[in-house]
Write a structure and sequence with these properties.
Number of helices: 4
CATH superfamily of one domain: RRM (RNA recognition motif) domain
Strand content: 15-25%
Structural class: alpha+beta
CATH class of one domain: Alpha Beta
Strand order of the largest sheet: 1-2-4-3
Number of strands: 4
Shape: elongated
Distance between the termini: 99 Å
Helix content: 25-40%
Order of helices and strands: EEHEEHHH
Radius of gyration: 38 Å
CATH architecture of one domain: 2-Layer Sandwich
Length: about 150
């Protein structure tokens, strides 16, 4: 895998390096973690503070165009980058450990006396009035025959 940095900009306002690179590879497309590691090594940044904003692969080419941001510290990374980007790269995301409440034994409720079910009276379903079909118009041929008979 070879990394070719196409542009590198120092953004002092956001305290980050904005990197555009083209990475060529053999075999399957590298994972995001492998791409982040390769760019970080080439630029000399900490891979834990580097985020891949965009990864574009062209069909049929063994190359990927990448836009990455390398931050100087974790606090600025957390404030600047959206959560979905951090989660996607697994950078700066605190893992939440949710403790599941222990399942308590089901409490025994006093059994209620069951009343015998009342027999339901059989009700006949309401009859739905049938819709009358519209009268069919006589066929044109029949109308012509009647008209010709009348003329005679």
């Amino acid at each position: 895998m070879s990394v070719n940095i196409t542009s590198k900009t120092d953004n002092k306002l956001l305290e980050r390096k904005e990197i555009e690179a083209e990475i060529t590879f053999d075999g399957p497309t590298p994972t995001r973690a492998e791409l982040r590691q390769a760019i970080s090594v080439k630029v000399g940044a900490n891979p834990d503070l580097t985020v891949l904003r965009e990864v574009r692969n062209t069909f049929g080419r063994k190359a990927v165009n990448v836009v990455a941001h390398a931050y100087s510290n974790k606090e600025i990374l957390m404030q600047t980058e959206p959560e979905y980007v951090r989660r996607r790269d697994g950078v700066g995301v605190e893992e939440k450990k949710e403790e599941k409440p222990k399942e308590e034994a089901p409490k025994e409720e006093p059994k209620k006396e069951e009343k015998p079910k009342e027999e339901k009276k059989e009700e006949k379903p309401k009859e739905v009035p049938k819709k009358e079909k519209p009268k069919e118009e006589p066929k044109k041929e029949a109308v012509k025959e009647e008209a010709s008979k009348k003329k005679e």
